[in-house]
Amino acid sequence: MKARSRSAAVQAGRGLPMPAALIAPESPALVLEPSERAPGRARRYLAERAREIGVADDYTARVVVTELVTNAYKHVGFGHIVVRVLPDGRDDLFVIEVWDEGEGRPVVRDEDQGATNGRGLLLVVQLVHDWGVRSLNEEGKVVWVRCAR
């Protein structure tokens, strides 16, 4: 994967058009209760879907889905979490979506050497091709990322 500067990676999630794959209704979804078990279940689902759509190495995607699902259950803590893994229109990418019922938007924090948490999304934006957030018509949001196959 081509390295990007931190500011370029952070800016990647702002103002991007939604990838066409994100509206594909035929993709199977995983529905989770917000709990400590949710990230593990999301990793297993991702591994299965990654094999189905031809992803050779899913390690980075498992790190990413773990962080996004963990954020959904820790920062929202109610309602369902929905995870989808979809092929992208380009052969070299695929999409991970994590839906939750919270209204708060994810924030990429500046690195703080003294902090004991708050680095997860900063790591995610460095690992993915691009990312973004879109509001749902009802309550909640979808955080999406595009990863290299």
TrEMBL record:
<feature type="domain" description="Histidine kinase/HSP90-like ATPase">
    <location>
        <begin position="40"/>
        <end position="146"/>
    </location>
</feature>
<keyword id="KW-0067">ATP-binding</keyword>
<keyword id="KW-0418">Kinase</keyword>
<dbReference type="InterPro" id="IPR050267">
    <property type="entry name" value="Anti-sigma-factor_SerPK"/>
</dbReference>
<keyword id="KW-0808">Transferase</keyword>
<keyword id="KW-0723">Serine/threonine-protein kinase</keyword>
<dbReference type="GO" id="GO:0004674">
    <property type="term" value="F:protein serine/threonine kinase activity"/>
</dbReference>
<keyword id="KW-0547">Nucleotide-binding</keyword>
<dbReference type="GO" id="GO:0005524">
    <property type="term" value="F:ATP binding"/>
</dbReference>
<dbReference type="InterPro" id="IPR003594">
    <property type="entry name" value="HATPase_dom"/>
</dbReference>
<protein>
    <submittedName>
        <fullName>ATP-binding protein</fullName>
    </submittedName>
</protein>
<dbReference type="InterPro" id="IPR036890">
    <property type="entry name" value="HATPase_C_sf"/>
</dbReference>
<dbReference type="Pfam" id="PF13581">
    <property type="entry name" value="HATPase_c_2"/>
</dbReference>
